[in-house]
């Protein structure tokens, strides 16, 4: 079985917790931390729902985006599908699977 350093340290920490604290106390600690995560997640979602910054949910309704694409004096006056907006705002895909396969064939292990 192969195990990277991070997984090994995590497994050792869990086993040490079981050895020192016992199974029941460790289960309670994990359960309380998970309930804290749930409460935190609920509060973050509530804060996002009440925030004024998220009043504009669609990018096409954003006044700054409308100003950028303005026909008269906007920076990208050509429109959303114009040459300049395509050049500045779009990303390009580069297929690197052949290079990754070549590295794997040479025996290099990649940790993502």
Automatic annotation (TrEMBL):
Q: Which residues form the signal peptide?
A: none
Domain Iron hydrogenase small subunit, chain residue ranges per copy:
31-97
Its primary localisation, in coarse terms, equals periplasm
The record, for InterPro entries, names: Fe_hydrogenase_HydB, Fe_hydrogenase_ssu, Fe_hydrogenase_ssu_sf, TAT_signal, TAT_signal_bac_arc
**What keywords were assigned to this record?**
Iron, Iron-sulfur, Metal-binding
Localization recorded for this chain is:
Periplasm
Gene3D superfamilies from the entry? Iron hydrogenase, small subunit
**Which superkingdom, per the lineage?**
Bacteria
Q: What assembly does the database describe for this protein?
A: Heterodimer of a large and a small subunit.
List the protein's name: Iron hydrogenase small subunit domain-containing protein
Q: Which organism is it from?
A: Pseudodesulfovibrio sediminis
